[in-house]
Amino acid sequence: MASQRHKQRTYARNRVFSRRGNEKFEPDGVYLLKLVTVTIAGTLWLKFKVPLDIGSLTLSAFPLGLIGGALAVYLWEKRPGNRHIWYAILLVVAIVSYFLPAGILL
Question: In this structure, are residues 53 and 42 in contact, taking their beta carbons and an 8 Å threshold?
Fold first, then answer.
């Protein structure tokens, strides 16, 4: 009877849900910082005055911020579900900012 009462415990830092069943959320300031970082990273493009011709491929810009932002999201975000949302935000901002006059011009 004593062995049925003792259950294996998990450490609190590994729990997604609290003991009461509520999901643990990050503070609003951390979420806002991540949002601003991802938005700024998505707008960074390395644009060329003269497009580069590599074989049959013409390269007029390079998504420098998209690659750096994707790496930052991969390292910072622990939950895969949230990571997908950040990737989607980063991709949308990068596509929109490609058509805007933003970026580093070489």
Answer: no
Q: So what's the pLDDT on residue 47?
A: 86
Mean pLDDT of 9-26: 62
d(CA 73, CA 93): 14
DSSP string, the chain: -HHHH------GGG-SB-TTSPBP---HHHHHHHHHHHHHHHH--EEEEEEEEETTEEEEEE-HHHHHHHHHHHHH---HHHHHHHHHHHHHHHHHHHTTT-SEE-
